Amino acid sequence: MSLSYQQMSAFKSSNSWANDSAFRFVRPNPTNSHNRNARWISPKAAVIPNFHLPMRSFEVKNRTSTDEIKSLRLITAIKTPYLPDGRFDLEAYDALVNMQIEDGADGVIVGGTTGEGQLMSWDEHIMLIGHTINCFGTSIKVIGNTGSNSTREAIHATEQGFAVGMHAALHINPYYGKTSLEGIVSHFKCVLPMGPTIIYNVPSRTGQDILPSVIQSLAENTTNLAGVKECVGHERIQNHTKNDITVWSGNDDECHDSRWDHGATGVISVASNLVPGLMRSLMFEGKNSTLNAKLLPLIKWLFCEPNPIGLNTALAQLGVVRPVFRLPYVPLPLAKRVEFVNLVKEIGRENFIGDKDVQVLDDDDFILVGRY
After folding, report:
1. Which of 13, 38, 17, 36 is nearest to 28 (CA)?
2. What keywords would UniProt list here (predicted)?
3. pLDDT, tens digit (0-9, with 9 covering 90-100), for 2-28
4. Residue 209's Cα: distance from chain center in Å?
5. Which of 99, 104, 210 is closest to 147 using CA atoms?
């Protein structure tokens, strides 16, 4: 039996449409096989309205509860390192994640802004999430950035992310081609049923604030909302916590006060890529204004240009990643590279990841990759 015949038989046996006239050929006049008036009537739409096969598994043993995600205090937005041709350097990546685990990070965001998910294909993105889960999923929580300004892409990427085992998803509101507040709610409602979710509010990048009323509306209608990565400031964080919404500060320079004075659960951090042990102390060991003040110059340096430019430069000078940049990111200028070396010496090299001496790299040491 031919494959096409099997497929048609299966289709006919499982659909009442098989007898529908729309699926029948209007046969030509048997007396004239060359009749040019023979017509083929187009079948009805092949896609059944509202029919969707989600890439989900209801296997319980690998599931992470929303409450587990809510309990995380130090989540590192992990850097993605590259080989000279622009492909992922998985050996360096694994070393970075291992150092996060050793120094007490609770979770990692894979393929976020810091990890340059915006420069990845979706194949790269899902592969890296799956790789992280496969290698480290029993030692640290893996939160995949599967958000998009396209609801269709966000749905598909989130299905794939949970299918490969990620513990939670990070979702941003639609950016650039912005939608209404009702549209934001509808967008998030499409992905929240899939698993634990952190919503990311960063108006400086998206151009649109996710108002507390939107978050409250979503929280009242799902158990999968783990919380919000909030970048608007202390007052907003306090607003959320009063409404029993879990919040992580998205600003390293504010996270100490957000944690101890305004009710934030913790931080989703860029700086912890460099000093995870100190950032853990900042989140776990009570108010420590002295340590916070010690770290603020480093944090200010990290964000002197849009993230992840500073972080990429710093990690290269620490010798833990190759000095390879996917464009449009380029390293900080020489004066800033010298400034970083001085900051490392002031804070103490022993507090930074890696074991090589920090050095000032020359312009010619960096590789900029536009096609990869």
Report:
1. 38
2. Amino-acid biosynthesis, Diaminopimelate biosynthesis, Lyase, Lysine biosynthesis, Schiff base
3. 444 444 444 444 444 444 444 344 444
4. 19
5. 210
H helices present in the chain, as ranges: 3-14, 66-70, 90-102, 122-136, 151-163, 181-191, 203-206, 212-219, 234-242, 255-261, 276-284, 289-302, 309-317, 334-347
292-333: per-residue pLDDT in tens?
A: 999 999 999 999 999 999 999 999 999 999 999 999 999 999
The DSSP result for 121-151, as a single string, is -HHHHHHHHHHHHHHHTTTSEEEEE---SSH
Clarify whether 329 is annotated catalytic.
Answer: no
Structure tokens at 163: 């299918």
In angstroms, the CA 170 to CA 72 distance is: 14
Annotated catalytic residue within 79, 93, 141, 200: 200
The DSSP bridge partners found for residue 170 are 145, 198
Note if 229 is an active site residue: yes
167 contacts 197 by C-beta, under 8 angstroms: no
Give the Cα separation of 275 and 283 in Å (integer): 13
Q: Please give the model's pTM, rounded to 2 decimal places.
A: 0.85
CB atoms within 10 A of CB 147: 27
